[in-house]
Write the structure tokens for this entry.
Amino acid sequence: MDLTFMVVLVIALALFFDFTNGFHDTANAMATPIATGAIKPKTAVALAAILNLVGAFLSTEVAKTISGGIINEGGPNGVAITPGMIFAGLMGAVLWNLFTWLLGLPSSSSHALFGGLIGAAIVGTWSFGAVNFAVVVSKVLLPAVLAPAIAGLVAYLCTKLAYGITRRSDPDSGDKLTQKRGGFRRGQVFSSSLVALAHGTNDAQKTMGVITLVLVASNLQEAGTGPHFWVIAACAVAIAGGTYVGGWRIIRTLGSGLTDVKPAQGFAAETSTAAAILASSHLGFALSTTHVASGSVIGSGLGRKGSTVRWGAIGKIGIAWLLTLPAAAIVGGLTALLMRVGIVGVVIVAVLGLGSILFMFFLSQRETVDHSNALSDVDAVGDAVHIPSKKERDRLAAKAVAAQKVAAKAAKRAAETDAARADAQSALDRADTAVLKAMTKAALAAQMPKVKTKTAVAEHATEPLPDAATELDAQEENK
């Protein structure tokens, strides 16, 4: 196979891995500020993308560790690793990254990359000598164990300190007063930005180191030299693009899956994460930012009194951490085994890899998770812990006073209406009484003449009737 074609293929896959690293690890910086409502989701991922881009240009120490430390570039028989083996290692890392993303597990992209490269190098050369295990232990395994623990401890102490110095109580009664911790929400914008910047200085360099490694293995670059500028720029753009896409499934897990995050916790966790990552980048440790961020979130949860830490979810993430390096190594080794066939093996690996990527993407569309629905639980947490600012409190107080005035006016109008209604009812009752009396009098008056007439007739009927003779004598006498 043409060497140049293989180099181009490896560089393309490396940049795709860098892209998956970006959206896989967006949650490391932005899950907690989104959870507390400190920053809007789409704004958060855009800010993280820009800072990842900037951070990629700040240091190359980690890139040198990968390109000239973990994998032996030379040996008694020449170069110990070929572009084909690097391609196989990258394929293992990419597939594991996408698999854990599909499950929403914040696994380590860095350990996936290391595992894939180690497995591919061992199988590709049939020798353990292709791997510098001393560097793996000192700069990969030990930081993987110590960094999350240290970051978690620092986050725990910082959370305790934050809640301690902001606790307010009545000096006389000792009753707890309303706590003023709104500043931590604004501080999270700064601390999460620092984490994103630190992520760029550490994770983007891993892909730079891989591309530099393939260039060295192809005799296109001298061993021991750092990455070229075009490599730095390409990796910076790739990880920034992936970050902007946003790994919403993992943001949901880190935002509310481990513990309910409040602003003071989030600030403490992010500050601890950023400090650990920046220190590791300076020392050249190829640190897992996911491990550090998760450890910080857990530590901050333990530091807040009354907080609930979901140990079941933490256990699942811990299993994913343990499986990442060996699982990626197995996939990388199997891929390297197919690559030994030649051009046919490369085609098989490319087809199977692309098919697996498309299949996992298809599965992800069955339950689409993005900024519009991934954060329903996270938004609820943010609403529950909202701490209004002074302006908001003044605005709410003014609204409360206005509402009281409106209620008083409404009560007065209601009282006046009730009084008028009572007067009207009283007048109506009096009118009904007057009408009833008038009707009664009229009825009595109408009945009185009939009674008098009947009485007169009865009295007239008792008088004696004159006889006919007497009547006639009276008439004659008148004549």
Summary: The chain has 16 helices and no strands. The mean pLDDT is 75. The radius of gyration is 45 Å. Residues 163 and 403 are 34 Å apart (CA to CA).
